[in-house]
Amino acid sequence: MPADAGDEQSLVANELYKQGIAYFNDCEFFEAHEVWEELWTDYRGESRKFFQGLIQAAVALHHFGNGNLRGARKVYGTSRAYLEQYGPYHLGLDLEKFLTEFDRCFAEVVADAEATGGIEVDPETIPEIHLTATAE
Questions:
Q1: How far apart are CA 135 and CA 114, in angstroms?
Q2: Domain extent at residue 49
Q3: Of 85, 27, 87, nearest in space to 57 by CA
Q4: pLDDT tens digits, 46-67
Q5: Residue 135 lies in a domain
Q6: What is the mean pLDDT of the chain?
């Protein structure tokens, strides 16, 4: 479901999109979620579920970092479901790479569906978002 070229260019340049990415890459996941939610609230185009997926990814990492494994596991799954339909690239994001890194970060949480504690996020596995100029 690629965006049309005009819509894509304006969204990639959108300040809220870029600010959310900056927060995400600084591991400020709650703030990233808030900024992207502001963008998502008013947006009605075909990238709406993509933004929802980014919001959910930030929320999943926020929960994981706070030790809420049940919440992290649940939101991780919904985030993946939203984002994977936009691959392999969308709005400058290499989704295949991002989802591979996201999966690696959550591997232990997903592997133990009953775990409610005792698993901590490994900072080395937290995915980052780096936009590319790849055509979709």
A1: 41
A2: 5-125
A3: 27
A4: 999 999 999 999 999 999 999 9
A5: no
A6: 90
